[in-house]
Amino acid sequence: MPKPVEALPRSKVIDVVVIGAGQSGLAAGYYLKHAGADFLIVDRERRVGQMWRNRYDSLILITPRELNGLPGMPMPGDPAGRPAASEFADYLETYAKTFDLPVKYGVRVDRVTQTADGFYTLVIPNNPIIRARNVILAFGTYPGAALPPMRKDFSPKVAQFHTYNYANPKNVPSGPVLVAGDGAAGREIAAELAATHEVFIASGRPRVVLPERFLGKTMWWWLEKFGIYKVRKFKPNRPRIDFIPTSVPEKEALVDLGVKWKPRLISASGNIVTFSDGSQATIRSVVWALGHLLDTRWIDIPAAKDPAGHFLMDQGVSPVPGLFFVGRPHQASASSGLIMGVGRDAEHVVGKIPLHIASGRETAPAVLAS
Fold first, then answer.
1. Could you give the domains of the chain?
2. CA-CA distances (angstroms) from residue 187 to 61, 123, 253, 264, 336?
């Protein structure tokens, strides 16, 4: 069990609390450390990088090592090679230790509010609140799997998985499997299931597939070169383009493996699924690979969100003073939700925080037990 928070006098205030110790939170921590800030990083997991360890066994990052390094520390290994998720998790853990970042594990923040005096309170189960002048929300681009209401229309005999609890083909019952979603994760899972199962994959919006490398440079380098990742003001309704490198199985390759390519899934009844072209299939299991869903309800600050509950921000800076973001998709550019973009965004955001680093600070930092 995670150790409890130490007794914490409510009069003590931390300058900055970073929620999340993934790549976004650690990048923010790097710049806060160099600024001499009084800060703390909290994460609900037991280890840095655990979110990556919890993904499916065969997950390989779509970006090469040369683009996966965080500020101040390149990722070791073949620069052009793509690391496994577990390797990247270990890199994050080493990064936190190398820069001696103040990360506290097993700390689940259930609620964040702002009091009349402008301070933030972080509510932790069975522990005192933490008070902070500033909060950086860096809990990740992918905090939870998106699951459609349609999942309730399946028979209880149909096994249902998503990209966070699917591990490998061995934990999927024998029989036909539907993979709902043809992004990178959906394609990779369909490819490995094809060796042992009959597999259907339901596609969605058109995907732009680009060569992994061209003229000696990565796809990501060329996208940066042509301004795709240029910093711009966040626009929540702006159309987004999802690029897939050829290192991810293409449609033709999946068909060659025996995967049955289908259009969008529109309904389910028992163990029968129907696609937008009217065709149907009888399945034993379904793997939901529809992307990721963000729950913002625990950030109990109405002025920080629009009526639909989406965070309001300008390049990671909330209209609510003292609230900031790192790692949100498209918060400043198309690379903001990628590992390669969090360093640039973290530097920008930390530069906007009014840090109390002068001697004679009025309040001492609150401390959590390791």
1. 14-143+294-350 (3.50.50.60), 149-207+242-288 (3.50.50.60)
2. 13, 39, 10, 14, 23
